[in-house]
Fold DUF5683 domain-containing protein.
Amino acid sequence: MIKKLFATVFFLGFVTLATAQTADTVAAKVNADTIPKANPKQEAFKPKIKKEPTYHPDSTHSPSLAVKRSLFIPGWGQLYNKKGAWWKIPAIYAGLGALGYSIVDSHKNYQMFLALTRIKNTGKPLEDFKPGDRYYAESQKYATEVERYASVNATQLQEAASNYQRNFQISILSVLLVWGVQTVEAYIEAKFISSYTVDDNLSFKISPALINQPMYAATSMGSYIPGLKVTFAL
């Protein structure tokens, strides 16, 4: 009898232990099944980490050095800045060359018409000038021009000389102006290079937008009108 009772208690204890282990195993399996697994599609649509823009400041570029070079030799500052030097330098020297030719030509014609005016004011024909006479050298140097402008009076010759003198002066001032402008341009360009950084991730974006109208321009359709928004990322 005692053996039967002991066997019965042992059997019930074993069943209880087995049931408890099965319940724990099922619970663990349920918990494992309820844990959300990573979806490959969701992994694919993860937002990409934006690369930080790289800046390239040129802190060694000196605006004062660009100015000094441009003052010493026109175009040297533009060559130092490098930006647009391929067309700026030829343009500078083309302008200076044209002005230089104008200076030489205006001065030459001024001297000629001034001498013709003086010869005309003497009232003597060209063949009457003798060595030692006043303006004799001029009469021999400009003998061809004296005959060419024989029908032109002294007043007209004086006006022509004044015009060439004015052109001569204007040409000199223009040379100084071009020299100064190219120096200022070299300084401004160098200042932009040394003071601003440039991002290597330049972008341009156009998107639709609504533009808010002033109150006096608002209509019954609303105070907003459609438009385009242009965004530059530098």
The chain has three domains: 2-36, 63-196, 198-234. The CA atoms of residues 78 and 159 lie 41 Å apart. DSSP finds eight helices and two strands in the chain. The helical segments are 2-34, 40-44, 63-72, 76-81, 85-122, 136-141, 143-148, 154-195.
